[in-house]
């Protein structure tokens, strides 16, 4: 019986290894492929070792280690590696149909929190955090680590009775640069206007369309978003302007490649960014995001764009996928027709999530 259970575990781990290897093979750069292979397998091995030491499931720990940075190596995008990796592998784990819902939740939560090394979470979250820091150190012992990572590394070394041959000088000062008080909404409008006027076409041959699609790790994403990329255009502009968000609000129903996700996000208690024309003196301004209501279809909140200017009768907007015709444009729309509301993001907004992550399985 134990041999059968071990064989099943190996098959599951091997299945995830194949998944990760296929992703690595798809990477263009040989050096990046080597880096991904070394890093992901290194964190996986350290995770398995720590799980053995701490009496946890080695197979699950090894799988978490393999998948913890999947989004970054899939897309090359550094922001939100934990939340975005969890969201990327969530449907992959589900569709493999070899993990229970409880196991999927354990894996996804550990991946989600893997970058939050200043707080203590569950056993598997702490395993992958410690394994990540160990991999950084053993891959390059002269690497400059943050003070919290040095402290974490020191605790793991003591746990494993490994001599501490590093000093306090190996960490950086942890000084954060003072955030400049820039008008990011104005920057958002500038970026949207420039991209809108470039008449981007939603086909893989257009490099600018590929950049808009790059955030979304789905298979065949160019076709998935074709004639349906207005929200992806807004997301790209926001990311470029410094309004950085994960591809999906942690407990949201949809990814921000869809208009509904933007509407939901703007109404969260911690945002409250949804506004209505004429309500409490609100007037659309440059840099607002406009959500349309049954503009092109009979479906609510069916389109989205970015406001560039406003007068008594019209708004000047930049949109990706104008009128679902698969190209970007800058043009005027009727200010009083088919508009649900506007999203005005605070210039000092920074995404922060401290709640309970409950992945949709």
Automatic annotation (TrEMBL):
Gene3D superfamilies for this protein: endopeptidase domain like (from Nostoc punctiforme), Hypothetical protein af1432
Record-annotated Peptidase C51 domain positions: 226-321
Name assigned to this protein: CHAP domain-containing protein
Organism of origin: Paenibacillus uliginis N3/975
């Amino acid at each position: 019986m134990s041999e059968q259970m071990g064989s099943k575990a190996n098959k599951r781990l091997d299945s995830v290894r194949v998944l990760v290897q296929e992703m690595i093979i798809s990477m263009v750069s040989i050096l990046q492929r080597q880096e991904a292979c070394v890093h992901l397998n290194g964190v996986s091995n350290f995770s398995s070792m720590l799980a053995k030491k701490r009496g946890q499931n080695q197979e699950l720990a090894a799988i978490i280690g393999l998948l913890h940075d999947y989004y970054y190596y899939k897309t090359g995008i550094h922001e939100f590696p934990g939340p975005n990796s969890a969201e990327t592998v969530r449907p992959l784990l589900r569709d493999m149909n070899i993990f229970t819902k409880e196991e999927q939740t354990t894996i996804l939560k550990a991946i989600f929190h893997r970058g939050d090394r200043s707080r203590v979470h569950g056993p598997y979250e702490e395993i992958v955090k410690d394994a990540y820091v160990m991999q950084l150190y053993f891959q390059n012992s002269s690497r400059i680590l943050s003070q919290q990572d040095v402290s974490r590394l020191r605790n793991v070394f003591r746990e494993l009775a490994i001599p501490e041959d590093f000093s306090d000088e190996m960490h950086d000062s942890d000084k954060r640069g003072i955030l400049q008080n820039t008008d990011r909404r104005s920057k958002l409008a500038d970026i949207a206007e420039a991209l809108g006027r470039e008449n981007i076409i939603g086909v893989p041959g257009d490099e600018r369309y590929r950049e808009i699609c790059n955030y979304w790790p789905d298979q065949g994403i160019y076709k998935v978003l074709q004639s349906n990329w207005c929200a992806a255009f807004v997301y790209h502009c926001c990311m470029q302007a410094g309004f950085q968000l994960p591809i999906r609000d942690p407990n949201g129903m949809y990814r921000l490649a869809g208009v509904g996700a933007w509407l939901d996000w703007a109404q969260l208690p911690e945002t409250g960014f949804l506004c209505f024309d004429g309500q409490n003196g609100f007037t659309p301004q440059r840099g607002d995001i406009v959500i349309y209501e049954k503009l092109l279809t009979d479906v609510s909140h069916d389109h989205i764009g970015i406001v560039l200017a406003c007068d008594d009768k019209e708004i000047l907007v930049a949109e990706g996928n104008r009128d679902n015709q698969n190209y970007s444009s800058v043009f005027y729309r009727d200010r009083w027709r088919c508009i649900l509301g506007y999203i005005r993001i605070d210039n000092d907004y920074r995404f922060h999530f401290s709640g309970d992550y409950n992945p949709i399985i």
